[in-house]
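Many introductory courses stop at the sequence. We go one step further.
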Amino acid sequence: MKIKLLLLAGVCILTTACQNQKNNSQTRIESNTSENQFDLPDSLSTRRISFVLNLKKAVAESSWSDFGTKNNEGTLIYFDSNWSEIFFPDSYVIEKLREGKKHSDNYWLLERTDSIPYHMEVMISFNEEDSSEFFFKNPVEQYSSVEEIGKYIPSVETTEMWATMVIHEMFHHYQYNNKNYRKYADSVIAILPFDSRNLVALCQEDEQFLTLIQGENKILMKALSEGNKDNRNSLITSYLDQREKRITKYGADYPLLERVEDYYVIQEGSARYIEYKSMFVLKNYFNNSEAPTILNDQKFNSFSEFEEIDLESSAFNYLVYAGPTDYHYTIGFNIMRLLDELKIEYKKELLNNPEKGLHQYLKDYINTLPNNS
């Protein structure tokens, strides 16, 4: 079975073919240091990528320390009009892609590597049929420019919002840089005859399944807002019970449902979590005279859209809505926020043990309570 993993910042697909100009007197983004360090050309694309790399560092410091171990996670391709700009190409990517103009070991400029109009993904394939591709067992980030993304997602109007999407994908790359996680994806998930498309189809074709999912998400949201510890614990128990009933109900017809769902809940839930955390870094930059800027970027808007991050507002409520195409993003995101509230350490274990579903961390917590011991 031919498998590619194409990770998109809105829909995750495991398919058989794989989901304002600033004044120079203002503070320059720290990425100038990165540009010199990596020997990148002085361009708008470089300044944007450097901005995201510094955002990566900041969100790692605040929310996921190991995510900041590397300055970058590996090769990324920035698509702009007729060009593909290859940042930090590894030897494998250089070997597989056609010859382009080399600026340095850290930057190549090529004619557009494909004709796909929209990119916001990490691409990786574990199938031998793709052994000639630059993404064969080799995760590569791919991003359309802010201008091109805006044509397909009109709500993405600024470089700052685009940057939160890029951070989401960088975290996917970080996931695949974990040997245990990559091995599990390759040897277990990629060979299954059931993938995220099946999760989407199940939601779209079975109204009751989606209703059950949304009911579980509603319980998680209540637990997140519950100030009483006992009531919160009761809600967590209710969530676990409802989830188990759904898995039992559908498991007979879809025996791989739980394993695949658990994988994508971790994969997309954690990436959405990091995306969300990056927004608070940008919020802290708002009205901060020492905040980084992006020079000569007409799409940079001084972080104004992050002045207030309200998950009930139309700009941000997509993060917590369990829709048919992305419920696994939302469930994982909400479980991780709940684990944070419970002060449960899970981040060091999560990718090293990807076979352990996120819900299991909640179950472990409930099992430690006096009445459950």
